Amino acid sequence: MTAHSALPPVATPTVSDLSPTRTLIAAGLLPGPLFILVAAAQILTRDGFDLRHHPLSALSLGDAGWVQIANFVIVGALSAAFAVGVRRGLRGGPAGTWGPVLLGGYGIGLIAAGLFVTDGAYGFPAGAPAGLPATFSWHAMVHGAAATLAFLSLTAACGVFARRFVTQRRPVWAAASLATGVAVPVLAAWPGTGAASIRLAVATLLAWAWLTALAAQLRADQRTAG
User: Fold this and answer.
1) Helices 196-225 and 171-189, axial angle in degrees (round to 10)
2) Residue 214 lies in a domain
3) What are φ and ψ of residue 124, in 5° steps?
4) What is the C-alpha separation between 211 and 69, in angstroms, rounded?
5) CB neighbours of 179 closer than 8 A, spacing ≥ 6?
6) Biggest distance spanned by C-alpha atoms of the chain
7) pLDDT category, 7, cuts 50, 70, 90?
8) Average pLDDT over residues 29-37
9) Is the per-residue pLDDT at 4 higher than 70?
C-alpha cells in the first residue's frame, strides 16, 4: 500500500448537495440571525435609542439609519429567496402552494418596510417630537402597511405549515407553528401603547426563530429525500 493510497478519501459536494433548491432553502437559515444580531448591535450603540420606547423600525432613522434599512432589505431578499426554494422543494405537496406565497409576502413586506421608513417619535432621533408626531408622513404609512403585510403573511404561513406537519404526523412541529402563529399577531396588535415596542421586538424574535427552524427542518427533509 502506498502512502498516497492510505490517505482518506476527500468528500466532495455532489450535484444534489449544491442544487439550486437546497441552496435557496438554506438561504432561510441566514435572515433571522442576521436581523437580530444587527439590530442588537444598534440597540446597544445608537445614542438615544431605548427599546422600551422606540420600535426597531426607528433604527432606520438618523445618520446611521442606512444600517437598519440595509438590514431590512437584505433579510427580506433572503426570505424571498427561501420562499422560492420552498416552492421548488414542496411543489405538489402539503404547503407547496400557499406556503411559498406567504413566505414571499413576508420577504416583500420586509423589503418595503426598509425602503419606506417610519417617522421619528419619542425623542428619537435627535429633533423628533417628544411623543408621537401630530401627523404621519406618507412613507411612514407605507412602512406600517408593509410591516402589517409581513406579520400577517408570516402568521398565515404558520397555519399553512402547521397543517403540513399534522399531515406528516409531526405534532411538536404542528404545535410550535400554531403557537407562533397565535403569539406573533397577539403581541403585535395588543392594545395600548405601554411596552408596545418591547412586544413588537418579542414578536419579531419569535417570527425569526420559527422561520429559521423551519428552514433547518426543510433543509434536513431535502437531504433525507435525496
Assistant:
1) 160
2) yes
3) -130, 130
4) 20
5) none
6) 83
7) very low
8) 98
9) no
The answer to whether residue 7 sits within a structural domain is: no
**CA-to-CA distance for 190 and 123, rounded, in angstroms?**
23
CA distances to 91, 149, 196 from 163, in Å: 16, 21, 31
Counting every residue, how long is the chain?
Answer: 226
Ordered alpha helix ranges (H), the chain: 3-6, 20-26, 31-45, 65-90, 98-115, 138-167, 171-189, 196-225
Whether 185 maps to a domain, the answer reads yes
Q: Specify if 77 maps to a domain.
A: yes
Amino acid making up residue 130: A
Overall average pLDDT of the 6-19 stretch: 47
If one counts every other C-beta atom within 10 angstroms of the C-beta of residue 170, the result is 15
Q: 175 lies in which domain range?
A: 21-225
CA gap 206, 32 in Å, rounded = 10
Q: What angle do CA 55, 60, 66 make, to 5 degrees?
A: 155
* Nine-digit cell string for 82: 427561501
CA distances for 43 relative to 7, 100, 124, 177, angstroms: 50, 32, 12, 28
**pLDDT tens, residue by residue, 155-190:** 999 999 999 999 999 999 999 999 999 999 999 888
pLDDT (tens digit per residue) in 131-143: 999 999 999 999 9
* Residue found under cell 397565535: 182
Name the DSSP class of 59: G
Domain count of the fold of the chain: 1
Residue tagged 426543510 (cell numbers):
218
Q: Are 90 and 76 in contact (CB under 8 A)?
A: no
